[in-house]
Amino acid sequence: MTAVPNRSPQSGASSAVRVVRAGRTSFLVREEPGEAPAGSTPVLLLHGERDALIGPHHSDSLKALAPAVTVVHIPDAAHNDLQDFEAYLNAFAKALAAL
Question: Could you tell me the residue range of the domain that residue 11 belongs to?
Fold first, then answer.
């Protein structure tokens, strides 16, 4: 994990950017001062199974890093058409109702 100092353009406060690796995939994560502790905020990742732009394995890699994350794969959905599928609408409504 690599931390890089960064200044937030909104507040000028210092934040850190880290590189998180999960297998062959890397993610940049920016942490702002005063953020909620990791795992305290519900995270829902909705991913189309036919997404050729950002493959569903990326969501699975994120879940491996943070097991509390909920991942829902939407059958037959690609990258920009998730909202056209009942499975997406149901998963989104269920997540909102749980808040």
Answer: 1-35
Q: What is the three-class DSSP state of 59?
A: helix
Taking the model in full, what pTM does it have? 0.63
Rg (CA), the chain: 16
Say whether both 56 and 97 belong to one domain: yes
Asked whether the beta carbons of 72 and 44 are under 8 A apart, the reply is yes
Q: Do 63 and 79 lie in a common domain?
A: yes
Q: pLDDT per residue over 26-85, tens digit each?
A: 666 766 666 555 556 788 999 999 999 999 999 998 888 888 889 999 999 999 999 999
Question: What Cα–Cα distance (Å) separates residue 46 from each residue in 30, 58, 70?
Answer: 21, 11, 8
Give the dihedral sign, CA 94/86/62/23.
Answer: positive
